[in-house]
Amino acid sequence: MLRLVRGAFKAGFPAYRFSGRVMLEQLLKFFIVFFVVVEPLSLVPVFSSLTAGASEGYRRVMAFKAVVIAGVILVLFALGGAHFLNVMGISIEAFRIFGGLLLFLIALEMVFARESGTRTSSEERAESARRADISVFPLAFPLIAGPGALVTILLWFGPVHIAERPLLFIGLVACVALVLAVTLVLMLLSSSVMRALGVTGANVANRLFGVILGALAVQFVIDGLRASFGGVSPVG
């Protein structure tokens, strides 16, 4: 699987070939990368902690609102992120390098099972514990639609113009929706998941995902550097 996912960073960005098989491969690669970055399993203990002692109705409302708001944020980035980079004069290669470094930090946090400083600070976590409505902060942003997820969205959706490649764009949006649906289900079943896996089980799964993400992040930086200084596109 690692070889398949690594191909996403070497063949998944600016140039797409659109036979049905190739498009399905691209969508599968994006789904795996996006799933690893969002880390739905890591949200289960966080959601359980933030909603401890709350009613089932409150938990359902917070979970649904968080996923909907995160979805809106991600779609907005998918539609306008590339234009924003162009306006700011930021090349996609520069964003690849930054994205790789950021994802590498996230991977390290996953491997060592540390609290994510790339998503929330200690002050933000303390504030979230006092909030009655946790759907926007910290669930939707930055836990679901966090920096890593936004970077991934920009890099995959940036080269895809909806008017020119509507099927691929719709497919990528469907992958995002599927990951969000998995996240929603896990939050709704967080009590059962925690009983089945426990904190240790969730950390083991996240460590495995972190190893994959770390390798992807390194490849990400290599491709960005090669495209920037070597004059060779990482696509191929």
Provide a descriptive summary of the structure in words.
The chain has helices spanning 2-11, 20-38, 40-50, 56-88, 92-111, 122-130, 135-144, 147-157, 166-188, 190-229. The chain has 236 residues and is an all-alpha fold. The chain has one domain (2-229).
Average pLDDT for all residues: 81
Strand content: under 5%
Sheet with the most strands?
Answer: none
| Sheet/helix structural class | mainly alpha
Low-confidence stretches: 8-18
Shape: globular
- How many helix segments? 10
List keywords for this structure.
mainly alpha, about 80% helix, globular, about 240 residues, 10 helices
Task: Please give the structural blueprint.
Blueprint: H1 2-11, H2 20-38, H3 40-50, H4 56-88, H5 92-111, H6 122-130, H7 135-144, H8 147-157, H9 166-188, H10 190-229
Concise description?
This protein is mostly helical and 236 residues long. The chain is built from ten helices and no strands.
